[in-house]
Design brief:
One of its GO terms (cellular component) is cytoplasm. InterPro entries: TSC22/Bun, TSC22/BUN_CS. This protein is mainly α. The chain has 4 helices and 2 strands, in the order E-E-H-H-H-H. It has a two-stranded antiparallel sheet with strand order 1-2.
Length: 130
């Protein structure tokens, strides 16, 4: 029995040797019947595949829903943009040259940046990307 005892702090402790539990299950090292093991692996694989399909379907549904919401927002923003462009054009046509000049003088010095983004907008068009 002394060969199974564990040395602890220089002294032999037979109680520690008797209560020692390995960090793994001894059943891991036992041979299992191949048919049962193969069937359980297939069952586990099937459950994993079902779970992955469920997740995929849920994500696809969520993405489709979000796409529909974004399409609607794009449509509303494009309509609002067209309305504002028409209003802007009308106001420019109704304004006198003096009023336009006075308005231009009140704009911040950042006119060139705004004009650049307006050029980009007209270059790419106001159509929907979706």
């Amino acid at each position: 029995m002394q060969s199974r005892e564990v040395r602890r702090g220089g002294s032999l402790d037979s109680h520690a040797a008797m209560s020692y539990q390995p960090p793994y299950s001894p059943s891991l090292f036992m041979k299992r019947e191949r048919r049962a093991s193969g069937a359980s692996v297939v069952a586990i694989d099937n459950k994993i595949e079902q779970a992955m399909d469920l997740v995929k379907n849920h994500l696809m549904y969520a993405v489709r829903e979000e796409v529909e919401i974004l399409k609607e927002q794009i449509k509303e923003l494009a309509e609002k943009n067209n309305q504002l462009e028409r209003e802007n054009s009308l106001l420019k046509n109704l304004a006198s040259p003096e009023q336009l000049e006075k308005f231009q003088s009140r704009l911040p010095l950042d006119n060139q940046t705004m004009a650049g983004s307006a050029e980009q907008h007209s270059q790419y068009g106001a159509g929907s990307a979706v």
